[in-house]
């Protein structure tokens, strides 16, 4: 805290005769005033303000500048007392007309920009400043200070203007726009834009439009007046589209009248008049661009047809014939283009040099009309993708013609970009077809046809492009070859164009692949090493064979070499290696023409030899990042497995793996590569015993590292299965497995691989000398059910080294048959040694309940090869056992006998299921359905049986209890096309049939988890199925059903994005309204000792709901082409969502903050307009302050303190990331909102020191 004496001394020092001391005093005072911890007396603050006003007139510029800076912190200290300072500054009139602001105006700017969020202060300043500004209208039109001050006042305090002040200011600005000089007029339009954000009254807008139209009509210069009007219209739509959209039709009429399309053929003999007309058309197109960019309602949609008609004409507008054609070739695409030459003047000048384009601004600006018309065309199809077919019908042929004849570089580039965007929209995963699918889904969901007729037209973009593919490719090639300067000016535009054409057409054919690569590379002065170059080659690799590169292959190889050899740009290296991976993933295939495949594989092999040295260098360079070395490892792995490499090359790669295996951070990926090498069999010729011993040395050491142990065990099982080991290696592996045994590291996940390894080792290692240890390992492994699948083979190998009696004695030496592990081993031993003499006794034991587990294991093995001709009922009693191992073994045995002999035993099992619908029974049925194929009739019968069973079952306590029946229903729906039956049951099931309802909802995890099911099912059925298992479930009154619905929603989001977005559009508003707050009916009180605790059973459901909203934004991030499908208006939902989420459980509050950032990124204008009486931004700040200022009770427990601390830290990280969005203009705030935001940040920085230290991504 600053001492009172210190501040007094500084105040005195500001009056010192030494300017350096005055400067330092002001600097130190500014720091003290900015620090909210300091408590400074009011008289000191008043003195500080008076000194600052005085120092603005200081003779030394450094002191004046520092004084100016000090005004930034002054409003926080003075608050309401800032008003006299503002009054003093506003009365400091400029002494002369200047194009720059005075220092007093700058001081006012610093004050207005940093005003506290106190309405009294803002209203007071408005009442002081506005009268002064309005007092002398003539000076306002001449001196720039006034418009600067008014702009700041509107920007930072505009929301506090009352309706009268808004009306007066609007009228004042309207007059100034049409009467002041050019600079002040433009600044007035900008100020109007800020003011229009606060206009909500329809009456005010109507009066404003009436006044500005009258001023326009009476303006002395017709073209200048219309230009000003169009600028105002552009700003109106950009600043407040919500309020001005109802006037879109009225303003569109003004825009279209200024375009004077019906006068295009009438060339004005006065050249200057013609240029004024064309400049007006440019302004009108700019206004149209603002309209269609910011207004996306149905009203605007209906204007797009007229707009496209205008674009059709204006993209080829050329009154002086600058683009006159020299031949007839360019008419090949469209013979029916009419009246094109009506707009050309045969005597017009042409531009031979692109360098003269800038000079064209003074001569002939018709190119600007064409350029802006292309911008409007792109904007319309971007914001209204359903208009793409109409746009193509009207403009596509003209665009292709213009590619041949356009001579202006700027227009030519924009033509390419527009064409590229058209192809991007028309690709299979582009906006048009996604919207078409979304429309189909919406119709299915709503049960009615939508009124959007444009989507129902017969003009399929893909069909158009395929039919014109040859002409398209020829014209693009001609463009590239004849316009080297343009290609070099913006190579990314041409790379993107060719990439989008290739992806949309699904390949351009071998001839054009070669031609494109050669043409572009020959046009470039230097190769553009950009992401777009990577996409360019990637598009060809995805859709065509590499042998189609032809003469372009050397260019491609050179690109890859330069990428890999680059030492300064890691991203370029990674992209180069990514392309290499694509080569091996897409090009080494055996399908297609035989000769072509041979050539393709030969090229891949040659490429491998050229690149292997680069990749090995990257892999073994320890100075490179792990990411780069891992990418090199992936590339080399693919190369070895796909290309035909010689022995020495493969050995060099294998030796490099030995080195990377020794590096722990690369060990996991290296182990995966070794697994692929040893299991493929393709490089066995290069695998040597020495290499195996070298890698085993590292692998066996890693056995003890828990993170790597599972992968190591799997790798060793593959090595031993391939036979790449000798006796010494086998013994080393046995010792390592013994270490796992000693450290109790056997798990259900590694027991099968250990069993496989032991089986393989017995081919080369004799274990009779240490049989006891080996048996102890077996007994430990036998406790895992998963080990059962490898135990018989392992037992056979053991019996090759010892007798069954000796082995039986060895096993029983550990325990008797009552031990389930010993019982399992003895049963498998008896079956493996074909000791069937006691089968009758075994059956009798099951019937009498003696040694049941042993008997089931024994019979399970026997039934795999022999049908005992017994009744299934012999085994079914095991389902009711109290011993879990007996129940599990019963399930296995019943599955074995039914799968092996379904005709005999499946009917018996179905009869049993009807009266004994238990979880184990459904688990058994699920396993049976995985292995047995039913007739459609049998499948339907079984489906109905399960439905009937679940309908009559009582409600259980946990959703997992229903999953096994749901698994069976899902399998039947998928395998036997019973989804329509499933939908019928869902429609007919009453909400009171809880067990059946939960079971039906649970089927989603099995159906949507199956890619083949999603591919084969009809879209309409999938949409209906999705809605019925999410929307109908989430809003149910039963908590278990609600949880199933929330789970399904998240699953569908991850599996079928289009459907999920359509669902979210419909249900998110209802979710925010009813489901994100704790439900009192799900909260219960539980006594723990003498204390009462509230248990919120609905917490897990709410977590899933909040996660689903976050997942929606993650999906949109990963699928940018689908963003337009999401039309949730978060402006209407934000306040309730944020308030509820931030107050909830710590997990939910964290997810809420992350989601809020996504909302800001997705809808940056969310705070621009309020919703009714709800002040969205103010409510947001208030909630943040409540969290930051919440006081913890003195007697609070440790958990509550930690919870609040963690929440504050999360919120601070959130605020810092939001601040980045605000600074980068990715979250739009008005002037007053910006001031309030800065105030919050300043308060937080002052109160929480961790603000500076808390890291954010």
Automatic annotation (TrEMBL):
This is TATA-binding protein interacting (TIP20) domain-containing protein. InterPro entries: ARM-like (IPR011989), ARM-type_fold (IPR016024), CAND1/CAND2 (IPR039852), TATA-bd_TIP120 (IPR013932). Residues 342-361 have a biased composition (Acidic residues). It comes from Pichia kudriavzevii (Yeast). One of its GO terms (biological process) is SCF complex assembly. Residues 323-361 are annotated as: Disordered. The keyword Repeat applies. Belongs to the CAND family. SUPFAM superfamilies: ARM repeat. It holds the Pfam family TIP120.
């Amino acid at each position: 805290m600053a001492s009172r004496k210190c501040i007094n001394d500084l105040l005195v020092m500001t009056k010192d005769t030494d300017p350096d001391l005055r400067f330092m005093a002001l600097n130190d005072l500014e720091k003290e005033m900015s620090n909210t911890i300091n408590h400074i007396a009011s008289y000191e603050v008043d003195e500080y303000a008076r000194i600052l006003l005085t120092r603005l007139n200081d003779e030394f510029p450094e002191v004046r500048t520092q004084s100016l800076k000090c005004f930034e912190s002054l409003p926080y200290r003075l608050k309401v007392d800032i008003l006299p300072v503002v009054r003093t500054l506003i009365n400091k009139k400029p002494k002369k007309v200047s194009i720059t602001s005075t220092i007093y105006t700058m001081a006012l700017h610093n004050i207005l920009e940093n005003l506290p969020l106190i309405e009294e202060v803002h209203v007071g300043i408005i009442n002081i400043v506005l009268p002064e500004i309005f007092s002398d209208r003539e000076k306002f039109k001449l001196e720039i200070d006034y418009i600067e001050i008014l702009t700041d006042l509107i920007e930072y305090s505009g929301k506090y203007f009352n309706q009268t002040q808004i009306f007066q200011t609007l009228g004042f600005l309207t007059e100034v726009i049409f009467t002041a000089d050019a600079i002040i007029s433009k600044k007035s339009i900008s100020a109007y834009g800020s003011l229009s954000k606060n206009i909500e009254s329809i009456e005010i807008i109507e009066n404003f439009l009436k006044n500005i139209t009258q001023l326009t009509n009476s303006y002395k210069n017709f073209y200048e007046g219309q230009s000003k009007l169009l600028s105002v219209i552009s700003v109106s739509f950009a600043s407040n589209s919500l309020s001005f959209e109802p006037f879109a039709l009225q303003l569109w009429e003004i825009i279209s009248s200024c375009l004077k399309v019906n006068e295009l053929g009438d060339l004005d003999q006065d050249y200057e008049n013609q240029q004024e007309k064309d400049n007006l058309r440019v302004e009108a197109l700019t206004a149209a661009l603002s309209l269609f960019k910011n207004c996306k309602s149905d009203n605007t949609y209906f204007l797009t047809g007229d707009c496209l008609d205008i674009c059709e004409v204006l993209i080829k507008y050329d009154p002086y014939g600058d683009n006159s054609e020299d031949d007839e070739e360019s008419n090949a695409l469209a013979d029916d283009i009419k009246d094109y030459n009506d707009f050309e003047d045969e005597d017009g000048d042409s531009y031979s040099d692109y360098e003269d384009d800038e000079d064209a601004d003074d001569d002939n600006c018709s190119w600007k009309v064409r350029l802006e018309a292309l911008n409007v065309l792109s904007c319309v199809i971007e914001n209204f993708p359903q208009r793409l077919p109409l746009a193509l019908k009207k403009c596509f042929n003209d665009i292709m013609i213009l590619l041949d004849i356009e001579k202006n570089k700027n227009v030519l580039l924009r033509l390419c970009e527009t064409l590229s965007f058209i192809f991007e929209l028309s690709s299979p995963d582009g906006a048009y077809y996604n919207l078409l699918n979304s429309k189909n889904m919406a119709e299915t969901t709503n049960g009615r046809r939508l009124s959007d007729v444009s989507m129902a037209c017969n003009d399929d973009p893909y069909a158009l492009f395929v039919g014109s593919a040859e002409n398209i490719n020829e014209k693009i090639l001609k463009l590239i070859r004849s316009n080297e300067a343009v290609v070099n000016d913006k190579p990314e535009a041409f790379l993107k164009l060719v990439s989008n054409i290739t992806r949309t057409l699904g390949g351009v054919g071998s001839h054009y692949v070669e031609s494109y690569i050669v043409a572009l590379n020959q046009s470039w002065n230097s190769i553009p090493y950009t992401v777009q170059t990577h996409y360019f080659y990637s598009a060809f690799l995805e859709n065509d064979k590499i042998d189609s590169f032809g003469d372009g292959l050397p260019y491609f190889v050179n690109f890859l070499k330069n990428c890999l050899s680059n030492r300064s740009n890691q991203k370029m290296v990674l992209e180069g290696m990514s392309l290499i991976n694509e080569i091996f993933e897409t090009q080494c295939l055996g399908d297609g023409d035989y000769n072509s495949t041979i050539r393709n594989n030969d090229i891949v092999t040659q490429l491998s030899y050229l690149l292997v040295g680069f990749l090995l260098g990257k892999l073994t360079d320890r100075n490179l990042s792990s990411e780069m070395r891992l990418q090199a490892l992936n590339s080399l792995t693919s190369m070895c497995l796909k290309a035909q490499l010689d022995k020495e090359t493969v050995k060099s790669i294998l030796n490099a793996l030995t080195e990377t295996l020794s590096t722990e951070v690369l060990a996991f990926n290296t182990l995966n590569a070794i697994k692929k090498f040893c299991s493929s069999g393709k490089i066995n010729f290069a695998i040597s015993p020495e290499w195996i011993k070298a890698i085993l040395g590292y692998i066996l050491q890693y056995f003890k590292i828990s993170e790597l142990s599972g992968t190591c065990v799997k790798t060793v099982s593959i090595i031993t299965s391939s036979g790449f080991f000798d006796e010494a290696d086998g013994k080393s592996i046995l010792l390592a497995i013994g270490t796992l045994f000693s450290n109790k590291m056997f798990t259900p996940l590694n027991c099968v691989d250990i069993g496989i390894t032991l089986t393989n080792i017995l081919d080369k290692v004799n274990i009779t000398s240490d049989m006891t240890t080996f048996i102890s390992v077996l007994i430990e492994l036998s406790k895992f059910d998963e080990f059962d699948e490898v135990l018989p083979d392992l037992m056979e190998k053991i019996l090759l080294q010892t007798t069954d009696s000796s082995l039986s004695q060895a096993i029983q030496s550990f325990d008797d048959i009552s031990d389930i592990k010993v019982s399992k081993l003895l049963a498998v031993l008896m079956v493996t040694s074909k000791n069937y003499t006691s089968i009758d006794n075994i059956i009798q034991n099951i019937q009498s309940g003696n040694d049941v587990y042993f008997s089931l294991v024994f019979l399970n093995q026997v039934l795999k090869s022999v049908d005992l001709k017994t009744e299934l009922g012999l085994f079914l009693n095991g389902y009711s056992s109290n011993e879990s191992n007996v129940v599990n073994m019963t399930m296995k045995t019943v599955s074995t006998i039914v799968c092996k002999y379904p005709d005999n035993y499946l009917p018996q099992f179905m009869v049993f299921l009807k009266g004994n619908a238990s979880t184990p029974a459904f688990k058994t049925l699920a396993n049976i359905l995985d292995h047995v194929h039913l007739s459609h009739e049998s499948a339907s019968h079984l489906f109905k049986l399960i439905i009937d069973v679940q309908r009559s079952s009582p409600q259980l306590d946990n959703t997992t209890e229903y999953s096994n029946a749901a698994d069976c229903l899902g399998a039947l729906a998928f395998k036997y096309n019973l989804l329509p039956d499933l939908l019928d049951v869902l429609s007919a099931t009453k909400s009171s049939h809880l067990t059946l309802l939960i079971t039906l909802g649970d089927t989603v995890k099995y159906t949507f988890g199956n890619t083949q099911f999603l591919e084969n099912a009809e879209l309409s059925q999938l949409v209906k199925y999705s809605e019925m298992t999410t929307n109908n479930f989430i809003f149910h009154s039963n908590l278990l059903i609600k949880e199933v619905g929330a789970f399904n929603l998240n699953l569908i989001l991850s599996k079928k994005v289009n459907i999920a977005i359509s669902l979210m559009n419909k249900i998110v508003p209802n979710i925010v309204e009813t489901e994100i707050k704790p439900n009192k009916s799900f909260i219960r009180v539980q006594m723990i000792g003498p204390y009462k605790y509230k248990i919120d059973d609905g917490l897990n459901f709410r977590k899933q709901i909040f996660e689903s909203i976050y997942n929606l934004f993650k999906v949109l991030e990963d699928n940018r082409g689908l963003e337009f499908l999401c039309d949730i208006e978060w402006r209407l939902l934000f306040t309730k969502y944020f308030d509820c989420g931030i107050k909830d459980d710590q997990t939910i509050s964290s997810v809420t903050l992350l989601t809020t950032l996504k909302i800001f990124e997705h809808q940056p204008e969310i705070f621009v307009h309020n919703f009714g009486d709800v002040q969205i931004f103010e409510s947001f700040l208030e909630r943040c302050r409540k969290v930051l200022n919440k006081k913890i009770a003195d007697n609070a427990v440790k958990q509550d303190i930690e919870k609040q601390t963690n929440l504050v830290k999360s919120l601070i990280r959130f605020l810092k990331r939001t601040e980045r969005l605000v600074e980068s203009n990715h979250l739009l705030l008005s002037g007053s909102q910006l001031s309030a935001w800065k105030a919050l940040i300043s308060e937080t920085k002052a109160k929480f020191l961790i603000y500076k230290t808390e890291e954010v991504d």
